[in-house]
Amino acid sequence: MSATGIGAAVRRKEDRRFITGTGHYTDDINRPGQAYAYFLRSPHAHATIKSIDIKAASKMPGVLAVLTGAELAADQIGNLICGWMIHSKDGSPMKMAAHPALANGKACHVGDPIAVVVAETLAQARDAAEKIAVDYAALPAVADPAAAQKAGAPSIHDIAPNNTIYQWHLGDGKAVDAAFRSAKHVTKLDIINNRLVPNAIEPRAAIGEYDAGVGTFTLWNTTQNPHVARLVIAAFVGMAPEHKLRVIAPDVGGGFGSKIFIYPEEVVALWASKRVGRPVKWVADRSEAFVADAHGRDHVTHAEMAFDQEGKILGLRAKTIANLGAYMSTFSSSVPTYLYATLLSGQYEIPQIYCEVDAVYTNTVPVDAYRGAGRPEATFVVERLVEVGAREMGQDPAELRRKNFIKKFPHQTPVIMAYDAGDYNASLKKALELADHKGFGKRKRESARNGKLRGLGFSTYIEACGIAPSQAVGSLGAGVGLWESAEVRVNPTGSVEVLTGSHAHGQGHETTFAQLVSERLGIPIDNISVVHGDTDKVQFGMGTYGSRSGAVGMSAIAKALDKIEAKAKKVAAHMLEAAEGDIEFKDGKFSVAGTDKSAAWGDVTLNAYIAHKFSGQELEPGLKEGAFYDPTNFTFPAGCHICEVEVDPETGNTDIVAWTAVDDFGVIVNPMIVEGQVHGGIAQGVGQALCEGAVYDKDGQLVTGSFMDYCMPRADHLPALRVDTTMTKCPSNPLGIKGCGEAGAIAAPAAVINAITDAIGSEGLTMPATPHVVWAALQKANSIPKAA
Amino acid sequence: MAGETAAVSMTVNGKPITANVDPRTLLVQLLREHLRLTGTHVGCDTSQCGACVVQVNGKAIKSCTVLALQLQGADVLTIEGLAPADGPLHPMQEAFRENHGLQCGFCTPGMIMTAVDIVRRKGHDLDDRTIREELEGNICRCTGYHNIVKAIAAGARAMRGGGAAAKAAE
Amino acid sequence: MAMTMNGEYELPVPPQTVWEKLNDAATLKACIPGCEQLDKTSDTEFQAVATVKIGPVKAKFKGKVALSDLDPPNGYKISGQGDGGVAGFAKGGATVRLTPKNGGTLLSYNVDAQIGGKLAQLGQRLVNGAAKKVADDFFANFANAVKAG
User: Fold this and answer.
1) Complex prediction ipTM
2) Fewer CB in 10 Å around end: N or C, chain A?
3) Chains interfacing with A (3 or more CB pairs < 8 Å)
4) Number of CB pairs, chain A paired with chain C, less than 8 A apart
């Protein structure tokens, strides 16, 4: 391993600008003549807009334009779309309601944009928005997904009777029923997977700029996938042809899924820039982010697991209602279906699985992918069932898991996925050792002496990452292929630019991608630049989500590097007057096999451009290659997380006292960065389990709409985290990488809840397990024996 | 309201500045929009996240929670002033880089300015618990805090040694 | 976001006098906290402008006040709804009952109120207290106005 190659904990190349305050996030960019946009949003969860009077607002100082849905429609700006088609059991397509960028006649959630003011300054835009008079007729609203389908619930979109978007299923229901009939024991759980607000610390922002002379638009945007944004805004919204729209995603301050989607505000910024003939900047404030950024999770599930008398799992069935909010966001339909039910086999050999999912509209912010997207929900279902099953049958939870682990690969599950490689027992074994599982009893007794309840919870999770083989996702309804592209440009002096369709917003691609190039070409990491986030520079790309940048994005770079190496060998062969087949390339040096003749990397790259040693007819000058890489399978990172908690029975407060994570991510490029990804994922999972939860009241008002009421995990919610790995190489991509970005968020909630329920001896907990929830569960559990 | 401005003068990163601002202008807006010091970030509107922390007269404050006009004559230090551009990093900055105490980088300037203030108040030997409690007013969504806590402990130790940049910042 | 509250006051004047005051725009304007404008548009309707501050959100509400279920001199329902623009909306009503007591009047009221938008998002933890204060202040002001004749 070289000091900067694959496997080295290289310090990040991108850090200097961030620690010195010289990064360039969207809000740090200012365009000459820039005006500011402010959105007036609906205070009602559900209302007919009878009229909008903009006269007074239009006359306010500094106002350039006040625009509403009527102007948007008049300019024939198209609706936002959901790009993944799901069909119901009966074969009917999902019911996608119109989603205009500014509400046209009806507001469907608190925060739905109604009008936009563009003014010389933000303060002027905001002052003018106060003068817009909207006459609303409030309608009854529904926020609870379980209530949305009930008779008498308010109807949100005419296209969707009973607010039902689709009624989808996966698996063989009859076979599952038969398996349950033969069961010795059945574990049943009702689960609410709580609604979350992603809250990347950088709020979303957009600057639209129209160049009337050439008829082109430029959009600076906080997006995880600039090319997808360009495609959707060009092809569906119809703002501009694709070649006349440039999307730039500069430094982006975290995404976690919420910056994948194409939102109304960037569409409006572009449109308004043409309308007013000035660049238009919009930056969300946090209050706005709470009601305008897609939320995550929000499932209501009933799940059952059947066991035989030895504790072998016979089958699993689940019925889930998924809340997709007021409109279908860009990838929303795929999250509770193909990213959820396909993972219900977990790490276990489960002969039969059947899952039904109803997706519903409610008068809430749209819901879409949030770190893990469907897989945390699946893991929570499976890992809670297994843990509770073990307790009910009086078996050791670790032993029950081990008994049911898949041991032979490849393994075809009953729910589409074919796991390619793994060693689940290895990660469990290592985690048990690191967590000092044997010493738990002693620690529990010590806690008891201090009046505390100690508990231990497991989560042996699996995820499908490296999203995804285009053919596979195409057959499941995806509107796009999920390959990745790369281009490697070698300069005459031997330095290298890597252009990638992946996008980094905290993941450190500028370092890890350069490590791959440094390893392959044997050149110093400082001679490599990674270019991303600009549709004018990078030809195409699908962006970063689903832990795909390593497995898919880097594989594309590897493929381009293969081509670079092949061509450079041709150049070297001419230089060294040898047969191409005799050229060997190692450590940045080309040599002729069996001789001492060699040429350095920089000599060969220079020769590729000066082209003095070969004819341009037989070999083209230059050294630049591109590649599109389409994976052959998903990747399947898996591992074991063990959470140890101490609960104070007097207050219900949970203290996470230890965390052990042993993950199998396949080949690791930079262990320092991978550990960081795991830490962050765990914190988000702990947040979901202990404190985060978006709460709507019955009228559809978001009552956890700021950091005052929505509890973000702070440093003191978490202990120091013990993070380690095991390794089975991923056979489905050339680098053996599985991906690590979502693991922590997927594994953690089940581990925490399994630990707390172990501590308090009651399964009756919902997330977030705040002190009040835990205390109430304890009171209820303690009251049962007394009543009996 | 718009149109009425008032003048305010203060020292920012060692340089005297004077600005005519709308009276409702917050310090963070003065820094970002008038002085184009965009290293100080805005992550919330309720004074919780800490992305906007700077030092005023040697103490850490949230620059989203103070009006520019309140700071007549004050001495303001932002992340850009912590170490000279292109020069050696402040030990706390170096510790964040060395310990991977940042991912997306958005909360980082506020974290570093807070961290320097923790050292001023609590000294150079900081235990895990102290650091975690002191970070109550700074939210990071990426790192899970593990490496931030490590970085602050290491940075605090390194600041004992001083270093050119640390001295310049004092 | 909805809330309810109630209370009562003993007034030293008979119900008929209280009833007249309850229907007098000038008295109502003086008693509604933050009320800047209250213009009678019909016998039972008013256009109103009032400034209300709840926690970090301060907004000028424009809206209508209407009187209904009129039962002179025993009581009525006074309801209002206001649009606070960017801050959101507030609506609510109070059922007021007047009963003779010891030669004077017992005024009892039941208030229900609802808020939405930014007010609910940022101010919801404070809104119960704020709404109670608005109601208390109104009826306290009203009691004083009645006593002052």
Assistant:
1) 0.96
2) C
3) B, C
4) 68
DSSP state of A367: B
Q: Which of A476-485, A733-742, C33-42 has the highest mean pLDDT?
A: A733-742
Torsion of CA A465, A471, A473, A478, to 10 degrees: 140
CB contact under 8 A, C122 and A133: no
Query: What is the amino acid identity at position A409?
Result: F
At how many degrees (to 10) do helices B91-98 and B108-122 cross? 120
Within 10 Å of residue A439's Cβ, how many Cβ atoms?
9
**Within this chain, do residues A77 and A39 fall inside the same structural domain, yes or no?**
yes
The CATH number linked to B66 is 3.10.20.30
Give the pLDDT mean for A303-309.
98
Are C116 and A129 inside 8 Å of each other by CB?
no
Contact call for A121 and B2, based on CB within 8 A = yes
CATH of the domain at A647: 3.30.365.10
> In this predicted structure, what is the pLDDT of residue A749?
98
Across the interface, which of C89, C117, C125 has its CB nearest the CB of A709?
Answer: C125
- A647 & A624 share domain: no
At A65, list the tokens: 């334009």
Map out the domains of chain C with their CATH numbers. 2-147 (3.30.530.20)
Give chain B's domain count: 2
Q: Is C128 on the interface with A (CB under 8 A)?
A: no
pLDDT of residue C90: 85
CB-based contact B106 A676, cutoff 8 Å: no
In contact, A414 and A354? CB cutoff 8 Å: no
Q: What range does the domain containing B111 cover? A: 91-169
Query: pLDDT over 70 for what percent of chain A?
Result: 99
pLDDT-derived band at A788, boundaries 50, 70, 90? very low
Domain range for A758 = 299-468+633-787
Closest CB to A703 among C84, C85, C124: C124
Q: Partners of A714 in the beta sheet?
A: none
What are B114's two structure tokens? 């807070």
